Amino acid sequence: MFRYASAPRLRTAAVAACLTVTLAVTAPAAGAAPAAVQGTKSVQLQWASAWPADPPFRSGVLTVGGVYTCTEPAGTSVAVSFNALQILPLAMPSGSGTLPCGPGVIDAPWELASFPNPDVHSGWTNVLLTFDGQGLPPQEFTG
Question: Is the pTM of this model over 0.85?
């Protein structure tokens, strides 16, 4: 004679089946590589220094710098550029370059010099920095 399974046995079988399916769906496949760790990129603009022009003999250079972190894989780099504004007299120096990345590049010092400009002078300077394609708020320096 055929007998139906009792309710406790059916519940136990259903729970076991659900648990097996859940583990199969959520468990990583054997040999699956972990997700790549994303690198960190950050910069701090801490200072600006002017080497004043002496027209007509030489152009001036504005140098900016600070510290940065870039833990992307070794051999990669991050773009950095700046535009500055000096008034009385008006000067608009700018510069661009790249900074190297790597696992140990944490709070590393950096500096970037402007292209030669005949109007660069000492005094009030407003610097707009772009790091990794992202513009940072302007910062004011005196020197």
Answer: no
